[in-house]
Amino acid sequence: MMIKQGEITQLLVQVNNGDMDAYNKIFPVIYSELRHIAHRIRFQYFGIETMNTTAIVHEAYLKIINSEANWNSRAHFYGVAGKAMRHILLNAARRKNAIKRGRDAQHICFEEWEEKINLSEECSDELVRLDEVLNELEKKDSKQVKLVECRFFANMTIEETAAVLDISPSTVKRNWQIIKAWIYSQIQDRKTA
Amino acid sequence: MGYSWSELEEIFQNALKVPSSEREQFVINQAKNDATLQQTILMMLRDIEDADKYFEKLQEGIAGGLEENKVDIYQPGDVVGKYQIIRSLGRGGMGQVFLAKRNDSQFEQEVAIKCFAPDEVKNNFFENFRNEQQFLASLNHGAIAHILDGGISDDRIHYIIMEYVDGLPIDQYLKKHQLTTHEKLKLFLKIGTAINYAHNRLILHLDIKPSNIYINKDGQVKLLDFGIAQKMGEPLQQKHFLASPYYAAPEQLKKQTVSVATDIFQMGILLHLILSHELPFAKGEFPSSSNRKLVFAETKINKELQSIIYKCLQESPEDRYVSVSALFQDVESFLISRPVRVHKQNWSYRASKFIIRNRIKISLSVLLVMSMVLGIIFSSYQAKKARENELKVIKTNEFLLDIFKSADPSMTEGNLTVKEILDNSVNSIESKFEDKEFKLSLYERLINIYTNVYLWNDSRILAEDVLSRYRDVENLSYLKIMSTLGGNYRELSQYQKADSIFSILISEIETGNNYLSLEFQIENILAFAKSQQIQGNYDTALQIIHKAQALVTSSASLKDKADIYNHYASVNKDLSKYDSAYFYQSKAIKMIQAKESPDHQIALALYYNNQGNLLKDMSQYDSAIISFEKSISLKRKIDSKANLDLAITLSNLGGVYYKKKNYDSASTILNRAIDIFAAQLKPNNNFIVSTRYSLANIYYNQLKFERALSEYKEILAADTANFGPGHPYVADDYISIANCYRELNETDKAYDFLKKAELIIEDKFDESHQKTSYLYNKFGMLFEKQENYTMAQIYFQESFTLANKYLGEEHRYTKLYKEDVERISNIMKADIDKM
Helix count (H) and strand count (E) of chain A? Predict the structure, then answer.
């Protein structure tokens, strides 16, 4: 898969406009970077000390986008990376749960990185549950899901999220609060159910 | 499908605006057709905070899953080389670190072992570790953690064994200990000193960050991982970041060439972090080469310090400070409340000027190195061609030294100080030349130059370093550097070190190395004697001079013999054995009196000068004047132009008139000296400044305090420009200014200036130096003026105790301080009696 440097920006914009073909095209690039970085983190190598999703996503961005990229393409990248991160973590969580239940995880994923993500059982359960709730949210308002991907999975700032979604920062702030409260209520529902 | 998102959103938002007691009813009313929506919103309102916590916890879990590597590389008890693992110290940025101790019972030595993931280490740093070790071992500095060993274990684990530092990383340390800005800056300077030390050895850190800077239990700074990034860096750059992205300089992010400026950048981040506990970037912002926006913790950091940080954090390496010393100058300026140079500049203006300035800097240092190199080439050429021409060779080199000596420090117009030129030269020598002996002879000259411009400390640091690195080159240059270093230790009041150096030199001399000229031998024996003399070990000094005397054979020159008598005279003078002193001094004079050669004439002029000083001490002021006049007329004969020697004697002569309380003659003579120099030199020249200093002292003694004060202030400005804000001369100026303010009853100002002086003196000298006791005495006088006798007594007593301990009870300062102690005790006694 060869993507030219300048093309990435273009693809990112398209993905953020909802173009899933563009997402499929760029996902491998982003995925391989995220994977590579996470693989490295496993060895706690060079530099990054308190590594979390933010740092991974940011660093992946630095690898992919050349240094001259403008702020907009950076924001767009985060949006896409957030989605990619969500997928990756979900796969890792499912794999964990599959193993826990003694099932073969073959149908899900064999990617090296995901095998090395070592989520706790509790965290895996929560991630799977979160994904279900996000799918519910998708049906109600897909834009809110995007906000979660940016704000939570890509750990973007309010301003950056606002730029990707093309809404005001105060709207992001307000919506994020509602979404969090709503997701939590849905998760509580599922737990008690 | 139920409620829509917009419905939910609207009711939830509005409910938040209603008082909490009415919310439930409000929601029930608003969502009356949808029980699920009702329940959902009520739950949401109830659990807002829990929701936040839920997401935080989830994120933590994800981070844990991504970074956990549960397998320890080693278990306690495992053996790595000579060491046994005690426990894991944690996972640092570069791998896992273990505490270990030596496996054999030879030493009780604890070490830290840093292990690296093997598939991440792609270059041959570890394979060749034994070769690299020399490079790392050259970092022999108290604030840099030693690298002891390294390599690859049998199980292919790459490791480095280093000094174990039991302490806290600086960020944690600062959270635990509340330091003032001043203390923080001092700490920063300590870190920078170590970095500068490494830079002078062409070793970069490239990963300066809190977790690499420890403060150990004794409060000492220790830098970890020095040189590791540089050594491991090159091949890894393709794949990885060299530094933590948070601390990486733009050129590291862009994978461009790293340099001293890279460390400067990281020091800028560190300084910001130390001062504010925050990174100087927008929150949530992540470092990328072009997008990183600087955001300073403006409320927590002083404006001037902000501009210093700003200059460190310039995007382009050439816009940052050129060296750690340049950065230091500004930090030190701030510390002693001088306006910071960079702060005054308009930045866009400055940017355009920068290239021009830079070019000047480069050409000046190149010029200096060029002239030194020319000297060397010329001298080696000469030496090879004709051994008998040795004197000429020496002359050539002296000539070059003189060029530099007479070069006016103010010539550089603030673009760079002499120190900066010299520092640059050190780097040039190391990078430009290969041949060890050749480099050593260049260093020998450079070290001399540092000494000649009174940068004793820099001279000392360089000499120590060169001596430790060139141990295998045992030649005359090496011994000459030792000799200079010994002299420097003496100037810096580090007598024990001075003594040990001279002892080595003397034992070298006594083994009978035939390449040491008799002149060199005598010179160093006498230097050793001088060191003993200054310490008040007069008997030892005399014994050592006897040794020199014993070396004297028929082949010894008259000048060497006379020099020995000159030293005898000097020791006797200190012993207040004025008659003996006078006898020896006269003998020295008689020996070479009739000699016409310039060397003898120069020595003779010096002896007359010393005779004058001796007579001054003997209170024979008129005879002293005659001796000084002789010295002066000789000096005039040797060189019709005024030179440094003449200035010294003129000011000594002025001093006699001053003693005679003949202030008019004194000031006339001193003014004459100033006039002579003013014709040739720029106004800020140190010769002029120091003579003006004597003049100011006269005004002070004439009780013309206002006039003295304004003189001292100008002298202060000149000294600061010439020598930098942290120089001992500047401290002297502060003290003099304080004295004036004290006499003018502006005691608050006086106190401020004494404090400024204290800062420098504390930094440059330890308590054994006479400046320390002198300063305490001045504090005492100030408190006495304020009629705070208790404090005055404390300071006078401390001043006397130190002087008594280090200068000896016979020293005239000691006696003076003792008088102060007695006077204040009497005052206090009188006060008590009154009550």
Answer: 9, 0
